Each structure stands twice: as C-alpha cells, then as structure tokens.
Amino acid sequence: MASVVSKQLMHGSRRQTLVHQVLCKFFQGEYEPNQRMTVQSLAREWDVSATPVREALVELEGIGIVDIYPNRGAVLRNFGAKQLHEICQVRRILESEATRCACGHITPHELSKLTEVFSELATAKRTVTWSERTQEWDDYLHELIYRQCGSERLSHEINRYRILYRTLRQVRHSKRQTVKNYAYMEENAEHLKIVQALAAGDPEKAAQAMNDHLLQTPIGLERDLFQQRDS
Prior knowledge:
Elements: H1 14-27, E1 36-37, H2 39-46, H3 50-62, E2 66-69, E3 73-76, H4 81-102, H5 108-123, H6 128-147, H7 152-160, H8 162-179, H9 187-199, H10 203-230
Antiparallel strand pairs: 1-3, 2-3
Helix pairs in contact: 1-3, 1-8, 2-3, 4-6, 4-7, 4-10, 5-6, 5-9, 6-8, 8-10, 9-10
C-alpha cells in the first residue's frame, strides 16, 4: 500500500507534521513496536533539524506512543487492539460530555448546513472523493463541538489526542481507498444523528448519539488496522 504520508501532511508546525508522519508509518506497519528511534536518525530521515524532532517525540510520549529514555532516544510502545479500545474509551467519555455541553451553543445556521452535508454523504456513492469529504466533515463536526463546549480544560484534553484520532482514521480510509471497499463505514449517518439531536436542543440525546457513534469507532478501526495486519 502506498504511504499516505506524502498525500496528506498536517498543516501547522513542523512538530505536528513530524508527529503525524511517525504515527502514519507506525499504523501502516513501516515502524514496528519496540523500534528505537533517535533524534539524529529521524532528523536525517525527514530532513529537518533536531529541535522539531525532540518536540515531536515529547508529544508522542504524551499520547502514549513512545517511551523516552535519557541519552538513548525513544522506543515505540506496543499499540494494538487493547490500546486502541482504551484510547477510544477516553475519547468517548470526553466527547460525549463536550457534546452535552455544546448543545445550545451552535448556531441554527451551522446545524442546518451540517444536516444537509451529512444527509447527502450518508446516501452518496462511496468513492475516493466520498472518503475524503467524509474525513473533512468528520474533522469539522468534532472540532466544532469541542470548541463550543464552553470548557477550556475539556477542549484541551480532547484536542491533545486529536492528531492520534485523525491519523488512525486517515490510515483506515487510505486502506479502504486502496481496495475500493467502503462497507461498514457508517459514520456519516451517525454524525447526522448527533447533529439532529443538537438541532432539537436535546443535550442528553445529543450526548447519547455521540456515545453511540464513538462506541462504533474502535470496532471499525480494529477490523481494518489490526485484524488484517495480524491475520
């Protein structure tokens, strides 16, 4: 499978780009668990200075992807189905609460537009373009919710893991694009239920819709990223 790294580099700082690149290669199997990485080797590989590499490794340690050892560099931790379900559990708890808090703070115009978009995507023909638009609007909805939740701490904690979630989803979609098979990818219909509950002004129903959506997320990720790799 062609690497997705060169296709979709993260916008923003070099540090964020490096974090994204390492995660992509890790989840694609190009980097292995327990593999040792030094600042010097990564700087050569990505043709950057040592400073953004050090910053990237610190961020990767903060989200549980590497362990850093003084004077020895970093070692990639194991990340399989168990770790996937744990991180998705954390995300589900945080984002369900953020959705409850955001209810009533997103404009009717915004919600009307999102209803239109997700209604169309839920029934559209599934192609590479559909996959790319699905990822784009997935990002938009989740970011909109946590930014409108009214809690800086909650927003910060969700955003801290955002690059990890996005990379997992991106690698999954890339694999599906390669085989032209988008079966069992129902996130647009799930997003529509969240938006409809928000539009109805029902915080509990909106939070439950987000909870249900994020219960499905690790199932699809495990199927596409780990079961195929282990088989």
